Amino acid sequence: MRIVTYLNTTEEEIFAKKFNIVVGISLGNKDFKRELVRSYLLWAIENTKEKVLVLIPDKIHSVNYEIKNGYKKERACKLSAREGKKVEEMVKDILDEFTPEKRSIVQYQNGNKLKRMNINEWSQFSMTSLKIMRSLIMK
């Protein structure tokens, strides 16, 4: 796998394993099939500082269902939670193929359970995400 664009970092910093890597798996992206997710996970494991966090943004995706499909909030939440669970199961299955050493590096969380990230890490992650979003919107 080759990353073409780096946001707020450089290729050199990634290959120097300067950061822990967060991989987001969008529920609305049909390209996230098993082999692509597997490739992302392997790439992240090979290039992370210590840990990899896989985010499955099911709560965010429920808003897409409300806005784009006109679903009521309850229906949208149930559907996105179900889809998030499927992705979570796929990630678990893929991780079962890896060695225990590689498996121990990866943590995965759906949108409701950002357990192991402490508040400072989450704040930094949130602020960086907002900066990226703003820069893309303001173009």
From TrEMBL:
Record GO terms (molecular function): aminoacyltransferase activity
Keywords: Transferase
Protein name: Cyclodipeptide synthase
Pfam families referenced in this protein's UniProt entry, alphabetically: CDPS
Classification via InterPro entries: CDPS, CDPS_sf
Similarity-based family: Belongs to the CDPS family.
Gene3D superfamilies per UniProt: Cyclodipeptide synthase
